[in-house]
Amino acid sequence: MSDLPGLDGAIITSSGSNLLGVLYRAGGAGPHPTALLLHGIPGLEKNADIAGALRDAGWNALIFHYRGCWGSEGDYTLAGIPDDVRAALDTILAGGFPVDSHRIAAVGHGLGGWAAIVTAAGRDSRIRAVVTIGGLSNLRTLGLSDQLAADYARFLRNITPKGIQSQWRALGATYNPVDLVDVLLPRPLFIVHGTADEIVPMSQAMELKQRAPGAELALIEGADHSFSQQRGQLVNTVVTWLKEKL
Predict the structure, then answer these.
(1) Whole-angstrom Cα distance, residue 41 to residue 93?
(2) How does pLDDT run across 165-222, given as a tens digit for each residue?
(3) What pLDDT sits at residue 1?
(4) Nearest in space to 132 (alpha carbons), one of 80, 71, 67, 184
(5) Is the pLDDT of residue 65 over 70?
(6) 4, 144, 185, 194: which one has the fewest Cβ atoms less than 10 Å from its Cβ?
(7) Cβ–Cβ < 8 Å for 219, 195
(8) Is 17 exposed, middle or buried (0-12, 13-18, 19+ CB in 10 A)?
């Protein structure tokens, strides 16, 4: 494999379905610290700018798509996402990519923040640090409107708006970050949130911080859920923190 930075396609098998991904491969002799970038629902924002900046900083970054979305095989289920994350970890650690197994982080946006915490707290010690960006922390206190559910379902395979809402409620009772964060700690946790997030209110970040006092919190003033006008600040904030922690 070349020592130059580049892009490598990745096919991840999860529960018999092929998931599509791309590894932003760092240059130089490996192995390299690696971040899994976990998108939200439906995953319009992929955070490719964070991936590129991490590669420039000597990190690998994997962007991949869960079952049933963005060309990956299978049916979309919320409960299946942590299994997809674990399958992605298996793939990048199988020996084909220059990954340092002791320096792996999960960076999750929106529902991806939920997935990062749930996966890491599920005693998957391969994840050594977690970043949530506009992350969901309590599905019991944040419902999903009919309008949002209908909008999301358009991009997802074999799931209805009512199905999304039903699965959302079920996860609030079983796999909820505020209930699991104690298991994640003392691994580093960074909570990044926009003060003008119109999808996931800032109260979700504050609730998670309250349950995990040792976590670090960065509030980006005026930022919406996609950090549409603060991308540079977001990228710098996340990359700087990861470089310091791993």
Answers:
(1) 26
(2) 999 999 999 899 999 999 888 899 999 999 999 999 999 999 999 999 999 999 999 9
(3) 61
(4) 184
(5) yes
(6) 4
(7) yes
(8) middle
Tell me if the pTM is above 0.70.
yes
Let me know: does 153 contact 164? Beta carbons within 8 Å: yes
Structure-block tokens of residue 55: 């590669």
Query: CB within 8 A of 165, min separation 6: which ones?
Result: 143, 144, 146, 149
Minimal CA–CA distance to 113: which of 205, 21, 23, 185?
A: 205
What percentage of the chain carries pLDDT values higher than 90?
92
**CA separation (Å) from 31 to 9, 101, 200, 242?**
18, 8, 36, 16
Instruction: State the pLDDT at residue 122.
Output: 84
**Domains of the chain by residue range:** 6-245
Q: What is the CATH number of domain 6-245?
A: 3.40.50.1820
User: How far is the C-alpha of 235 from the C-alpha of 217, rounded, in Å?
Assistant: 15
pLDDT digit string, tens, across residues 114-150: 999 999 998 789 999 999 999 999 999 999 999 999 9
Residue 10 has pLDDT above 90, yes or no: yes
CA 43 vs CA 31, 59, 114, 215: distances in Å: 29, 22, 13, 25
Please give the helix or strand (H or E) that residue 10 lies within, else none: strand 6-14
